[in-house]
Each structure stands twice: as C-alpha cells, then as structure tokens.
Specification:
Strand content: 15-25%
Number of helices: 47
Helix content: 25-40%
Shape: extended
Structural class: alpha+beta
Largest sheet: 5 strands, antiparallel
Radius of gyration: 59 Å
Distance between the termini: 98 Å
Number of strands: 63
C-alpha cells in the first residue's frame, strides 16, 4: 500500500496560484502565480520533488493566461493576458518575447509532436503559428496568422499527429518493409517523392503541423499544415475538451455542457459525425475531462465520484469516494491519470488527494469499477483543490489551491508487527499502534515523514533516511513519549530492549536511544556488508551482501555471537543475494528468501538449522522440499503449486512454525487447461474471486528430523493486502484501504468485555485452532503438538498430545477442525469424547457413501457447520444429498433449484415434501400449488379441503383435471345430487357414468344418444345390458356390437335364432367365436359353406379342408389352398397337393409340394408334365445351409440342376450346380448355353484346372482368328490350367493359320517356337511320344526359318536364295512346314522383278506340273502370270482355272506379311508341385 508525502511549494512572493504544468520528459514543474495586487504575475519553476529554481524569474505586469512545456526540450512557453508570449529556456536561463501578434488574452498554446512548431490562439479568434528550431528556440516573427472570428475565443487545440517527422518516417518505412501497399506507394526510394510530386518529408511535415482547434461557440477549424485554414464542423456549446483518438482515427469533442461527440476524419481533414451522447453532469458548473487508458474518458463535475466513459464499448461506470475518510459533502474537483502506473488521481473540495489503482490489465474490453482499487487518501492543509497533475516518472503529483501549491511524492506505507504490537503508518507523518495483549490503540504524530517502522514490546522506532526517533509506548494506557532521536542515513534498523541496532558499512552499530555507540557487531570484508536484520525474542539475525548469515544473542548486557556464521551462497545454485531474513524465538532456525542471478525471486524459502548447521528448503512452485525423505509419512494435503514466497515470519511462541505469504506466478501450465475444462453446468456458481489469482498463506513445520513439512495453506482474504506476522493461534494481516473501518469509531459503543478491533490490521484464526483461540496456554500447547504430529504423520503422538484434554468444547472444536483436515478417524474419537452418540452413528452410516466429501459433510452437519456441509456436497457434486440437506435445513427454494438443475429424478419428491411442510405450517394455498407440481393433487388436495366443501368445489371448478372432476361427480352422486353429478361427469367426459345415471333415471333415449354420439365402449356395453334386461334383443345386439362385445351379441343371436346376423358378428369377433359359430353352422347342411369359411378364418384349416372334401366344395378348396404357406401343417399341404394333381392343377400342386418340403416329388412332377422350373421356384426348393444336412442339400441342388439342364435352362443349372459345389458340371451346363462372356467369367473366378481347360477348348471352337481377346483368353486359360501340351497344339494351329490364311511365315515361326517351348515344359504321360513331337516341331520350325532367310536374301544374294529354295523343294517333308507353291511363287516373283521371264516361265511350268490339282493363283499373282506370258509372247493356257480365281478368297500376292495378330504371349513357367 502506498502513501504520498506532501510538500508545500515555496514561492518567492505571495499570491494566487493560477496554473501548474509538468514537463513531459524532465522532472520540472511550472507554477503560475498571480500577485496580490491583481496586476503583476510570475511563473516559478520547481525541480527535484518541489525545490524552487531561485535563479529563474519570469515576471510581468500582467496575469499568466496559459503555460505549455516543449515536448522534448526544457523550454516553456508562457502566454499572458495582454497577448504577449515569452519563451523561457533552462539551458541558458533566457527569456525571449515573441512578436506581439495577439492583442488580447492568449487562451490556448500547443506544441506539435516534433516540437518544431508552436500554435497560439486568443480570445478574439486570432490563430498564430510559430516556427521553432531543434533546440526549441522560437522565431520571433510568426510563420502564419489567421483570424477565425472576432466574436469567438479559441479554447482548445490538438494536433493530428503526436509524433515527430522522424518518428512518422520511421513508421512509414517500417510499414513499407512489412508490405503495406499504401506505404510502398508513398515511399519512392529513387526520388523521395510520391506520385503527386510532393516530397515525403514535406508531406510528413505538413501532417505534423496539421491540427484542429475549437472555439467558445462550438466551431471547429482545421489547419492542414501548409497554408489552408477551413471550418470543419461545429458542436453545441463551448468546446471544453478536444483530442484525437489515433487508434480509431476519430476526433473526440466534449463541450462544457458535457455533450460528447465523435467524428471520423480523413487525411484531408474532412470530419463526419459518427456518434453523439449526453454525459451526466453534476451540480458544479466546472467540469474536468481527461484521457485514461486507450479509449477511456474520465469526467468529473462536482460530484463525489468520477465517471468513466468507454469509447470502445460505449459503456460507462463510476468510481466513488467511499469509506469513513470522506465526508458527505465532499466532491471531486479535478482529475489526472498516470499511464505508467495505471493510477487515477483526484483532488477534492476538502483538500484530499484520492487515488485509484488499476488492478486489471490495461484493456477496455471488459472494463468496470472492479478493475480499480481505492488507495489511501492524502489530506492537505488547505481547502478546494483546483488542479492536479502527474510528473513523467509517475511518482510525483502536483496540485494547487487558490493560495498554495503542493508536490506529493509516493512512498510505500510502512508497517511492522513484533512482540504482540502492530504499528501501521496511516499518513506521511502519523502511525497507529495497537497492543494486542492489552487491547490498547494509540495514535502517534511525528515530526518527520516516516519511511520506516520497527515495533517492539514497548518501543517504536521511526526513521526517514536522515533521522531516527524512538518512542516509548505504554502497553496499559494511551501514553506515548519520545525516548530519544539521532541522525542516521541507514534504513537497516532494529530495536531490542534499550538498544538500537543499525547497519552501517561493515558493522552493525549498537546504540542507545541518544545515538551513542555502545558496541560494534563487525562483519569482515569477506563476509560483506549487512543488508537485512531482524530481531525475534532475544536473538538478532543479519544477512550480508556476500551471502553470510550471523545470529547474535541479545539476552545479556552485550550482544554475543550465537553460533558460527553460515555462508549460504555456496549451498544455493544461481544465488545472487538475500532479500529478507528472520530468526525464530529461540535462535535455532533462520529463514531467508533469495534473489537469483536472473533477477527473479526464488520460489523456495530456506531455513538454516543452526544446531545441525544444515540448510533445507521448500519449493512452492513444485510443492516439494529440497530434501528427499522416503521414510517420512507426512501429510500430503493441502498442496500449493506455482507460487513464489514474498514474506515469511516465525511464530513468536512456537519455534518450529513458519508462515509464508505466497504470490501466484503466471506460468502455471495447467491453468488454461483447467479453465477450459470447467463448465458452468458442472457445478453451482461460485464466487468471482475463485477465477482470479489469489494470494495464499502457507504454514510449515521445520525440524532437523522431518525437514520442512507443509502444514496448512489458506487463501488470504480479499480484504487484506499483506501478511504482517504470526502469533499462534492467529495470523495478522494489513488491511486494504477499502476495507479499513472508521479508525475513530473503534472504542465507541464497545463494552469492556468485548475485545477491541484494530482497524488497520485484521487477524484470522489458524485452521487447527478454530474455536480454541481463547483456550489456556496448556491447551494451546497441546493443540500445537497435536497439529505438528498430525502434519508429520505421527498419529500416536498426535493423540497423546490431546489425550489429557477433558474440555468438551475443546473436543468439539477439534472435531470441527476435522472437517477441514478431513480426518474422519480423529473425528470419530472427538465425537466419542463429546458424547455425541447421534453424530457418531450418522458418521458411521455416512461412511457407506463412496465420496469422502459426503462423509465430511455429514460430520459438518452434526457439528452445525451447515455452510461447510453445503460446500462439500457441491464439491463432490452429490446433488441428491445436497437436495436432502436443503430440505432438512428448511432451504426449500435452494432445494427446488438444485433439483431442477441437477437432481431432476427427485424433483417431484422435493415438491411433495415442500407441500407437506407447507401443509404442516398451515399454508394451504401454497401447499396446493406444490402438490400440483408434484403430481399428487388428485389425492392430496381433496384430502386437504374435505372439511371445506365450498372451497373444494371451487377448486374442482377451476381445475381442468378430468380425474378430479370425476371424483367430485362420484362424491355428489354418493350424496344423491344427481344433477350436480351429471354436470361434472359431462365436464369430465365420463360417458359411462352419464349413461349409467340416465339408465337409472329411466331416460334410455338420452342414454342411447350419448352412447351413439360418443362411441364409448363401456357406455355402449352398459346400455346393451340394460336393453337385454328389458328384452330388447335387437337393440341389445346393436349396442353389444358397438361395445365390441361380440360374444354377447353372438350369444343373443343364437338364442333368438337370428342366423343371418351370426356370420357378420362372427367375422368381427375372435377366433374362438368364429369356431363356435362354425360349429353351429356345421349342423345345418344349407350353411355348410359358411362353416367352412369360419373354420378357415378361425384357424382350423384342417377342419375346413375336411368339410370341403366332404361337401365337394372345390372352389372354396382352391381359395383356401392359395392362402397356405410354409407354416401350414405338411399333412394338409400333402392332402391339398394330391387333390390338385388329381384335378390337373399341377402348377399349384407343385407349389404346395414345395411348401410341404417334398422337393423330389415336385421335381418329378415338373419333369413328368414338362413344367418349366423357374428361377423363383428353384430358389424356393433351395434349402439354406443352416436348416439341412449339407449332403442332402447338395444332392437336391444337383437334382434341380439336372432337371433344369434337361429343360434347357442352362444358366439356372449352372447356378444350382455352383451352389452344390460341383463346378465341373456347372461349367458343362454353361458350355451348353454358349454364353462366351459368362463362360470366360466363370472360368476366371472358379480357378480350377479342369474348368480352365474346358473354357479354353470351348473358345478354340469359336472364330478366334478374328477376335484377339478370345485368342488371349485361350492362351491364358491353357496356361493357368497347366495344359501346356494343349497350348502347344494351339500354337501349332496358330502357325498353320498364319501360313494358310496370310502366308506370314515369320509369325508362324514365332508360334511354332512358342509351341516348342510349351511342349518341352509339359509333363507328358508318354515321354517318347513327347520327344517325337518335339523333334517334328523343331524340324518344321527349321524349314520355315530357312525359307524366311531365303526370302530375305533373295535381293541381296539371289543365287544363294534360289539354291536354298531349290533345296527346300527337294526336302521330303517340305509340305508339312512350307507350302511348295509359296517357294515357287517366291522364285517366280524374283525372276519377274529382274525381267528374267524365261526362267520365270520355266519355274511356273514346273510349279504347274508339281501341283496340277491346286490353283496356281494361291501362290502366284495373276498379273505376274500375264506379264510372263506377254513378255515371252506365249498365249495363256485354255485350261487355266479362271473359275478358281473367282471363287478363291485369297490370291497370290494379296496378303501382306505384316498383317494379322502376332502371338507373342509368354508361356508361364510351370510351378513345381
């Protein structure tokens, strides 16, 4: 908590303060003072927290009207009421008077952001622009002048850009580098000019000079930075506040009547209004408006509050003057905001400076009054504060009244707690002292500004850095007196008994209260200088800059070193320095905090055990001790993580107990995940502070045996700001200003028996001592031992510690403590010692619940801790038990709310229980509503109101519930009021009761009308009985039929021989009635057909068929047979089928045989009468695999397939053979169908060798020569079927086709080659026969190869080729390989080409003799023959077979050896078995 020390500004001459202004960079303050003669005036300059610069004298015989500091230089512009402007420079303490361009009072002045331009305006509307250099020197002659309006004063001026030219150029360059197209367009790196020819520097300079200025009549003008002045817009009223909001690019205007307007402005200065709103104004005609955080305005106008207006969200809220320090007529008169520290300062009419510190992040999106915290106000001696302002550092505040000025410097409020005495600084020179032992509070006013406090048993020391004052404080009465004072510059001060311990240099000086040094406690140069000291009991500990800690015993006349000094720096990694140190009450332990080399505070608190000379620590970030003790069974609960200790104190009575104040860090890795997982629906809404980072207080027990064990962790209440100390059983906290009670009210209206409360310090009871804070010392000591042993896990010693306690209240308090420690075993012992049998029984029963929280909650209920029980039930989400708890505690509203949201299964029960409770206390109307909600009103409401018949009748009339109306009608009927009963029966739509009463009254017609109109079954039945009793059979049958009581109608029809009605009634009735009527009809020959139909409809099919056979009712029999299905008795089906066969209805007979599962008979019937088996019929005869033996099923399927094959249904046969698993027969059936596509597909999916071969054989029967796909499939199937011998034969056939059809010996040779390969790989049964085939194939291929070579050589080596051809002709088996005609044809063609016609004719004649029976034209082209005869002039023979030419499909020379498909498929290597 911070306070502000005020210092009154000393002025050279007396007068009235009119203006104050802080420099934006330097710590300089300008104060304008008007002389008492009302003529002269001066401006005083102050520095260093209000020190007057006496060599500065800015004076004139005129009043100061405006002062404005240069933004960067120590230059001040001063405007005077006579129109003069003086520029003062601190550098040479010079004053320059500018040309007096203004003839009237200067009303406004402003520097631009760069500081190279100054603008000024006066009350006559004269606007002047002055040029300044880089040092802030302003040219005497104005740069430009402009008269706006002689009737309007200029009140405000604001520049569009608050930056200088260099800053703007830097921003533009940065934007251009980042890819901003506009910036790139403006930045021309070559010529430094933009597209319009204007240089960037000139453009920037114009922007830096451009500004808006407002007048007293509401007009706003714009200056573009060059030479153009123009009116921009106007508002209603005089302009009070004018500023530019660069984030949104808008201009904000506030008038004196607090009308807020926002205008969007363009780069050319054109303004467009976007919003206008009237701000709330107080009683004062004066208003103050300022900027706070980005987009937030603060206004004040004579109210006890400051109004905050958020321009981003269009929302507002107020900050009030709250607390005892402010009077009812006090209001805010001026405001200022410190942007560096986020503090809003306000001056009041009672001379107080009030501050609000912003505790939320600097954003305006979720801003409200809870983001600001009221700080300690500072009271000044004078009255109304007229102006207030912050310096550039944010540590100084300047304010003024009409007659005085003040500078307030910030200082953290000092406080100390020691020896049961708390001392708190409440103002710069005042502190409040409270002795908890004697309940005495005393106020101490000092003569110095307090900067440090130390409190001991009966002494309080205060100091300010130059002087130390010791006061003696009486513990029993309000008596304070000065015990001594002396000068010292040290801040390292402690007090014990009659000595003061001061750290100076390498020593701790022991002085008396007059400052005389009695002793020196020396630190060597190696040990360093003492930085921090502390006194507890009779021991003083000190930590040095080198990381040493020393302890001194102060119990004797002179201080003596208690033990050897300890160098802790070598035991702590990354050690930088010790920031605080404290010792316990017996000097055995010293705790300390350290700063690390990275500048951050360590998350550990360390303890030096002096008796064993060891250092141990506890890490609050990881929640673990620095020593790993596997044998210790310490209490693991509660835990704390991700915290850093900031304060630590030892208990002044218990040497083992250490308390630490913990601040949470911002690096909790689980915090965001937990916030994401948390759902509003999952738990009942909790307090808002649960979502904030809360300061915690942890207590630890430190012993050499157990190390440091975490004992308790509690959240510090929101009302407290910091931990002051610990003295069991209490923690002591410094309160926040907003939570401080009226300090002057303490002691008022208090009885002597009631303890007094120190308003500045709050204390809370430690968890283990709740309810025991007033116990005797022995009990407190026992409880402390119990808590220690409980924490360290030593339960035996823990119970020993409290065994001697006999007080029931102590056990009760201990049991209450168990609700927090969650020790049910301890709670059971406590309840036993309390004699709380009911609570012990309830606790045993609660242990059946699986959640530990439920068990603890039951304990809390038995102890009366209802709030704790409620919290526990919510924690474990046992909303059923929470509902019961609310009901038991009478919190019905909460019970219903919980049931509606989380326990809906018990919602109606909750409403019913609430209704019973309301009934018990006599709230009948409310109980009725709850009974209705619970759904039990039909029973409970009549029970409640039975004694009040009229009210009950009224309730029934208003109700819309038919059951309730029916009940009331029955009640009225019982009392004999039939008209009333009829009315309510009709309202309840109870037709039966209406018919019943009308029949009772004899109004049968009305009853019949109701029964007919409503169609109510019960009403119709009752009326039918009435008619039957009266002998009206026809009417009785009618209403029995309407009531669907057909058996009664049939009974009456039979008894009264109404046979014609029986058939219809029986068909409407049940099967039993149908059979009964059928039996009745069977006795009569003329109604036998009706009997058959009823037997059939009633499910007696066998009986119906028997009657059909007996009565020869064939048409009926066929009708019945059509409705038979697989669920019919097989005997019946067989009987029907036999009958149908006898009468030639074979198709229907087959269907019945199939239904009777006589499949073979059905098939024989199909074959006998040539009835085609359809696929549907075949599927019906196909038995599922699960319902029959597999062998029988396969035999049946094969039988179906064989029948289908005989009938030519090859596809159906294939399907059934396949289902039977006989793929060979399936393939044979498919082959008979001739469906090549399906044959190919079936072979591909069957993957059986025999099927592959069958498919290939079939495909060979097709015209595979013209279809390459068929040829490929043949090769593939033979290959997959491993029939390489057959494949070889196919290749041979291919070769022969190539020779015979196309004369393509090249392809024929390739085919024979493949044939040879296949045959050589085949596994033949007769190897010798296979070898002979291979030899023949090889010989044939060799001959073909020779012929191919001869044809190739005939052009290059004709003689060799001719000889080769002659040799081939002479081969004995040449015709098996090469056609002789082809050889002769080749020779003839060669001779003709070379015009050797005689030789050609010779060979031709030889050919004709060789094969006279063959057509020569197969081998020699006709044109070739004609050319030979023509060349030799030989006539064509007459016996030349011309007819053969016409009929032959192939002629010599017509085939192209390149045509046709080449068989080049590779033969798949045969796999080894």
């Amino acid at each position: 908590m911070a306070v502000y020390f005020d210092k009154k500004l000393n002025a050279p001459t007396e007068g009235f303060n009119t203006k104050i202004a802080w420099h934006s960079v330097s710590q300089l303050l300008a104060v304008a003072v008007k002389g008492r003669d009302e003529v002269s005036a001066e401006v005083n300059i102050y520095a260093n927290e209000g020190e007057l610069l006496e060599d500065v004298a800015i004076q004139k015989q005129s009043s100061v009207s405006y002062i404005e500091w240069h933004p960067h230089r120590d230059v001040l512009a001063v405007g005077w009421e006579n129109g003069e402007i003086i520029i003062w420079s601190r550098q040479d303490n010079s004053q320059v008077a500018l040309n007096q361009s203004h003839k009237t009072c200067v009303s406004v002045m402003a520097w631009n952001g760069h500081g190279n331009s100054l603008v000024s305006g006066d009350e006559n509307g004269h606007f002047v622009i002055w040029k300044a250099d880089m040092r802030g020197n302003v040219q005497k002659m104005p740069l430009q002048q402009y008269d706006i309006s002689p009737m309007q004063s200029i009140t405000n001026c604001v520049f569009k850009s608050t930056k200088g030219i260099a800053d703007n150029l830097s921003d533009l360059a940065r934007a251009a580098v980042n890819g901003d197209e506009n910036a790139l367009d403006r930045f021309n790196w070559g010529s430094s000019s933009d597209k319009k020819g204007e240089s960037i520097v000139a453009s920037m300079e114009a922007q830096a000079y451009s500004c808006y200025f407002g007048g007293s009549e509401g007009a706003i003008w714009y200056y573009d930075g060059k030479s153009n002045f123009s009116p921009s817009f106007s508002v209603e009223g005089s302009v009070l506040f004018l500023t530019f909001f660069p984030k949104k690019g808008i201009l904000v205007v506030v008038t004196k009547n607090l009308m807020l307007s926002q205008f969007a402005v363009t780069t050319e200065g054109v303004a467009t209004e976007i919003s206008k709103v009237k701000l709330t104004k107080g009683k004062s005609p004066h208003a103050d408006v300022i900027w706070t955080i980005d987009g937030m305005l603060a206004t004040t106008s004579g109210e006890n509050l400051v109004r905050m207006w958020n321009l981003n969200t269009e929302e507002n809220y107020v900050l009030r003057l709250e607390g005892h320090a402010f009077s009812s007529n006090e209001h805010v008169s001026c405001i200022a905001y410190n942007s560096k520290k986020g503090i809003l300062a306000a001056g009041t009419n009672n001379g107080r400076v009030v501050t609000w510190k912003r505790i939320a992040p600097g954003t305006t999106q979720e801003d409200n009054e809870s983001c600001w915290e009221l700080q300690t106000p500072t009271s000044l001696e004078t009255g109304d504060l007229l102006q207030i302002g912050w310096d550039t550092s944010g540590t100084l505040i300047a304010t003024r009244t009409g007659i005085a000025g003040y500078v307030l410097s910030e200082q953290i409020m000092s406080h100390h707690f020691g020896d049961d005495v708390a001392a708190v600084q409440v103002s710069p020179s005042q502190l409040s002292i409270f002795c908890y032992g004697t309940q005495v509070q005393q106020e101490l006013k000092t003569d110095i500004h307090i900067k440090g406090i130390f409190a001991s048993k009966d002494k309080v020391a205060v100091w300010n850095g130059t002087q130390l004052v010791i006061y003696e404080v009486s513990r029993n009465k309000q008596f304070v007196r000065a015990a001594g004072s002396f000068a010292t510059t040290s801040y390292i001060i402690s007090v014990h008994s009659d000595s003061v311990y001061i750290g100076e240099g390498n020593n701790i000086q022991v002085r008396n209260f007059q400052g005389i040094v009695k002793q020196l406690l020396a630190f060597t140069e190696t040990e360093g200088e003492p930085l921090v000291v502390d006194v507890c009991g009779n021991y003083l500990c000190a930590a040095s800059s080198a990381g040493y800690i020393k302890i001194f015993d102060l119990s004797r006349r002179e201080a003596r070193q208690h033990c050897n000094p300890k160098l802790v720096a070598e035991s702590i990694p990354h050690f930088s320095q010790i920031t605080s140190v404290h010792c316990n009450c017996n000097g055995t332990k010293v705790s300390f905090l350290v700063k690390l080399t990275n500048g951050k505070m360590s998350s550990r608190v360390y303890v030096w055990e002096t008796e064993v000379d060891s250092i141990q620590g506890f890490d609050f970030y990881k929640c673990e001790t620095t020593e790993k003790r596997s044998d210790r069974k310490a209490n693991k609960e509660p835990l704390v993580q991700f915290c850093v200790p900031v304060n630590h104190y030892w208990d002044s009575k218990e040497p083992k107990l250490l308390a630490c104040e913990l601040h949470p860090t911002h690096s909790d890795p689980n915090q965001k995940k937990a916030a994401y997982r948390k759902s509003v629906v999952d738990e009942v809404p909790s307090d808002d502070k649960a979502s904030k980072m809360i300061t915690k207080v942890a207590t630890l027990f430190s012993t050499a045996e157990n190390g440091m064990v975490l004992q308790e962790v509690t959240d510090m209440e929101n009302a407290f700001s910091t931990l002051l100390g610990i003295r069991s059983p209490h923690y002591f906290f410094l309160k926040k200003l907003s939570e401080i009670d009226d300090p002057f009210a303490s002691g008022k209206n208090e009885s002597e028996d009631e303890p007094k409360v120190f308003p500045y310090v709050g204390r809370t009871v430690m968890r283990d001592f709740i309810g025991l804070e007033d116990s005797d010392e022995a009990t407190m000591r026992a409880m402390m031992n119990f808590s220690f042993n409980l924490t360290t896990g030593n339960m035996d010693e823990a119970f020993k510690a409290i065994k001697a306690i006999k007080s029931e209240s102590v056990w009760e308090n201990l049991a209450r403590m168990c609700t927090k420690t969650r020790r049910l075993d301890v709670a059971s012992v406590c309840l036993g010692n309390m004699g709380h049998a009911r609570g012990a029984r309830a606790l045993r029963e609660a242990k059946k619940e699986p959640e530990i929280e439920c068990q603890i909650a039951m304990l809390a209920i038995q102890l009366g801790q209802l709030d704790e029980a409620e919290k526990l039930y919510k924690e474990c989400k046992r909303y059923d038990l929470l509902n019961n708890f609310y009901q038991a505690s009478g919190q019905w509203k909460k019970a219903i709310e919980v049931a509606e949201k989380f326990d809906r299964i018990h919602l109606r029960t909750t409403h019913y229980n609430f209704a019973k409770q309301l009934e018990a206390i006599g709230q009948i109307s409310a109980a009725i509503k709850e009974f209705e909600t619970a759904g039990t009103h039909l029973f409970d409401v009549p029970r409640l109101l039975l004694d009040d018949v009229e009210r009950l009748r009224s309730y029934v009339l208003k109700s819309q519930d038919a059951q309730l109306k029916k009940w009331w009608a029955q009640y009225m009927e019982g009392k004999g009021e039939l008209e009333e009963a009829l009315r309510f029966y009709e309202s309840a739509h109870d037709s039966l009761s209406l018919v019943r009463i009308h029949c009772y009254s004899g109004d049968i017609d009305k009853a019949a009308e109701i029964a007919n109109s409503t169609g109510d079954l019960a009403a119709s039945y009752h009326l039918a009985r009435q008619h039957e009793n009266e002998g009206k059979i026809r009417e009785a049958i009618h209403f029995y039929t309407r009531a669907q009581s057909y058996s009664n109608a049939i009974r009456l029809a039979k008894d009264n021989e109404m046979d014609n009605d029986l058939m219809n009634l029986a068909l409407l009735s049940s099967s039993r009635d149908m059979i009964d009527v059928a039996t009745f009809y069977e006795t009569k020959q003329e109604t036998l057909d009706k009997a058959i139909v009823l037997y059939y409809k009633g499910g007696e099919v066998a009986k119906a068929l028997d009657l059909c056979f007996q009565a020869q009712q064939f048409s009926t029999l066929e009708t019945i047979s059509e409705s038979l299905d697989e669920n019919t008795d097989p005997a019946i089906l067989n009987q029907c089928s036999t009958y149908l066969i006898e009468h030639g209805r074979n198709e229907k007979a087959i269907d019945l045989l199939v239904l009777a599962k006589k499949y073979y008979e059905a098939l024989e019937l199909c074959m006998e009468h040539n009835i085609i088996i359809s696929e549907e019929l075949a599927d019906k005869m196909t038995i599922s695999k699960e319902s029959a033996d597999n062998e029988y099923r396969n035999q049946l399927l094969e039988k179906i397939a064989e029948c289908a094959m005989q009938q030519g249904s090859y596809h159906l046969a294939t399907k059934k053979f396949t289902q039977a698993g006989n793929k060979i027969k399936a393939m044979k059936s498919l082959l008979k169908s001739g469906d090549t596509e399906k044959i190919t597909f079936f072979a591909g999916v069957s993957r059986q060798r025999e099927i592959y071969i069958m498919a290939a054989n079939y495909l060979q029967s097709l015209d595979w020569r013209k279809d390459s796909d068929v040829m490929k499939n043949i090769i593939t199937f033979y290959t997959k079927g491993r029939a390489l011998d057959l494949l070889s034969g196919f290749y041979v056939a291919c070769a022969q086709v190539e020779i015979d059809e196309y004369q393509n010996y090249q392809k024929a040779f390739g085919a024979l080659t493949e044939a040879y390969k296949c045959l050589s790989k085949a596994k033949a049964k007769n190897p010798q026969q296979q070898e002979d085939k291979l030899v023949a194939l090889k010989q044939r291929a060799t001959l073909i190869k020779k012929f191919i070579q001869a044809k190739k050589q005939i052009e290059s080596e004709p003689n060799d080729a001719i000889n080769a051809c002659q040799a081939l002709i002479d081969e004995p088996d040449i015709d098996s390989a090469v056609r002789v005609g082809d050889i002769y044809g080749t020779m003839i063609s060669h001779y003709v080409q070379h015009e050797n016609f005689s030789k050609a004719h010779e060979v031709l004649e030889e050919l004709r003799k060789k094969i006279p029976s063959m057509n020569i034209l197969y081998y020699v082209n006709m044109k070739t023959i004609e050319s030979i005869h023509k060349a030799l002039d030989i006539p064509m023979p007459r016996n030349f077979n011309v007819q053969s030419q016409k009929t032959s499909g192939v002629y010599a020379g017509s085939a192209d050896e390149d045509d046709g498909e080449e068989v080049d498929e590779e033969v798949i290597e045969e796999e080894d078995d």
